[in-house]
Amino acid sequence: MADQQSAPHHPRDAVSEPALVRWLLILISAIFLALFLVVPLGTVVGRVVVAGWGSFVDTISESDTQSAIRLTLSVAALAVPFNLVFGIAAAWAIAKFEFKGKTFLTTLIDLPFSVSPVISGLVYVLLFGADTWLGPQLKAMGFPIIFAFPGIFLATVFVTFPFIARELIPLMQAQGTADEEAAISLGASGWQTFIRVTLPNIKWALLYGVLLCNARAMGEFGAVSVVSGHVRGKTETMPLHIEALYNDYSTDGAFAVASLLAALALVTLILRTLLEVKFGADVGNGRHK
Amino acid sequence: MSLGLALTMLTLIVLIPLAALALRAAALGPAGFYEVISDPRVFAALKVSFLTALAAAIANAIFGTLTAWVLVRYNFFGRRIFDALIDLPFAMPTAVAGIALVSVYSPKGLIGQWLAPLGIKIAYTPLGIIVALIAVGFPFVVRTVQPVLEEISRETEEISATLGANRFQTLFFVVLPPLIPAILTGFALALARGVGEYGSVIFIAGNLPFKSEIAPLLIVIKLEEFNYAGATAIAAIMLAVSFLMLFVINGIQSWSQKRFGHG
Amino acid sequence: MVLKSFQAGLLVFSLALAAGPIAPAFGGQEILNVSYDPTRELYKQYNALFAKHWKETGGNDIKINQSHGGSGKQARSVIDGLEADVVTLALEADIDAIAEKTKKIPADWKTLLPSNSAPYTSTIVFLVRKGNPKGIKDWNDLIKDDVQVITPNPKTSGGARWNFLAAWAWAKKTYGGDDAKVRDYITKLFQHVPVLDTGARGATQTFAERGLGDVLIAWENEAYLALDELGAGNFEIISPSISVKAEPPVALVKGNADAHGTTKVAQAYLEYLYSPEAQKLIAKNYYRPNDPSKADPADTARFAKIDLATIEDFGGWKKAQPEFFGDGGVFDQIYKPAK
Prior knowledge:
Strand content of chain A: under 5%
Strand content of chain C: 5-15%
Oligomer: heterotrimer
CATH superfamily of the largest domain in chain C: Periplasmic binding protein-like II
Number of helices of chain C: 15
Helix content of chain C: 40-55%
Radius of gyration of chain C: 22 Å
Shape of chain C: globular
Shape of chain A: globular
CATH topology of the largest domain in chain C: D-Maltodextrin-Binding Protein, domain 2
Order of helices and strands of chain C: HEHEHEHHEEEHHHEHEEEHHHEHEHH
Number of strands of chain A: 0
Largest sheet of chain C: 4 strands, mixed
Structural class of chain A: mainly alpha
CATH class of the largest domain in chain C: Alpha Beta
Number of strands of chain C: 12
CATH class of the largest domain in chain A: Mainly Alpha
Radius of gyration of chain A: 23 Å
Strand order of the largest sheet of chain C: 2-1-3-10
Distance between the termini of chain A: 12 Å
Low-confidence stretches of chain C: 18-25
Number of domains of chain C: 2
Structural class of chain C: alpha/beta
CATH architecture of the largest domain in chain A: Orthogonal Bundle
Largest sheet of chain A: none
């Protein structure tokens, strides 16, 4: 990154730390990451590698696995845009305007995080289950909610709801409204201001948000498990299928699907890395040069 | 416009379902509600859930901020891979994370086998719950701090140095304050997520009543007994406490934003 | 303005819902069997067997969809509206709950098929490590000082309830019905349990893959399957002197099947479980067949003669369920802090 390029000229740069401290900090966070993420997940990927390519292909090409992949991708493809619209709208409202009850609203947005996944699924059962008023009506109209696609979609939207908004709010608050005010005073409309001024300022945080939302939408297990009904080849998403394989004593198969899921969920990350390479250091430092 | 849209979606996705939950819990009546929450086992489980989540969130706030700093400010070999790995806990279904963690930290596991002779047991103890919650909540702090850190101008640091502050003073008094809202947000999110986490924890917790039984497991147990009201009562309590914690943290955050904010 | 954006929000919302992909339709008839965890292997094979039989006896193409999970959770899903045509669960109490809460299963379901609607039974045995290093022979060995016992949580696992009752049956006989001593034994037993997994498969994985504990209390079929899947050389099966006769029942969910127009095939699906072909398959999958004479003698020879208590000895599930596993029941009392 930019600061490192200047390092050779000023070995004891006033805006950086001594090399020893730098390496120590890198080491500490690397060890932390290794203990909690890399080693455990490494064992997962390690087993897939040991089991070999053939076993991986066998699992992936099974029809139940393919249907799980399709289901997970369709759910994420709908849930992410949905939350994108919400996230931008909510963050815009919270960061750029002053109104009463803002803290309350922010807290409400965070709420799905604090709801146990077991409960996030259950609330939809309470709303649309067989002994409710709404559920049987919708079902009679040929539009079942729970134990069908809409229920899985709703549960996924619920658990991923805060991701994008939460990513944008601190950033947009830190940026303040000066740029927008300048744009408005120069005669730009609200929409123009948003597209030309706000969006470029928040694009990286937005991308992070989408990435997280997408990853979580694909990986959600608890909530979806409650509303799915676990019918193989029909309402089983990838995480549920992983559990099913694991319970079939097919640990290799389960871990193969898990690795694939991680790869799929991180597609956006790969995109971001590609963009970073293309635009160089500009990406990391945003507008402040 | 944006506020209206946000409110509509919030109502549909969050408020209506949670109202259904509250309604179901209310069916218990005050006496029934009190009976559920005064059960020492429920209380013990809530304590386990909140304390382990708190410990994990504190660890994540410290190491997450450090990691964000390292990722934004330093250039080193493998930084991009490092960066990419952060999001893995989101992408991994929680059950897989649980299975992976227990295979590493059980007494016969990759890391557990070295700790066992030292008398340190991680899997099947509250310590195991903390480990799982750290893993699950780790990306929250990193990913909320990182974008803000990237936005912070280096100029203020230069000014601070020019004015004679040493590096530590600059970091502590100039760099850290504007990061506090983001760190708090990440902390709050990791905490909130940890309190409700189920999938990864049940594999590693041991699930012994009064010792390592978490509140979400009690909810599942109540559901197995077809006791929807009891289950929703515990859920409602967890929700209320989490809401309060988040509300306070968001309050601190908006206060600190007014104080240190750039607006 | 607010109203307008409210409409916009609704529009986005309903679009998102309506765009759900429809699974490719299957030409023939489909039925859904909602089952519990350890039956995966059995029903995978049985479904193929039945589909062939149905076609040969003049039926149309039939596709059987499977759903597996913890028995209680599966029952709850059916109650909440999962469209099961048949349920094949671990516990009578779970089917009773469906019958009671949805009325989709007649209350006398247990009498509608032979042998209490249980086409196969199983029992509870011990799985120990190779060579049985702790010398475990019977239930009293489980509370020896250095023995760790793995069993799932009776609150969340149907199999674990059978484990609990098997231990109780042994203690009751051993202590001549002295209730205090029986409770004392059960309390001690659970003090030797370091982990309560939520499901039977989870407990097996904890024992076999994590290497935790000296003995796993498990379904007989599950123990044999573990030998097959996880290496016969690593474990041994020990049959205790007394165990329990577990009867996992099956039932037609008439309300759903009638609505789907699948009653005939769903009923045939359950009845065919009692056929010689199916009984043979059942024994092959380590379940004790209803009619051993139809099974391969080599398969039935594996089943040790154990003195088996039945659920009737506990007064039936309607009594045993709340007494032992209900809120505040015997199992909860074990963990009351000693004060």
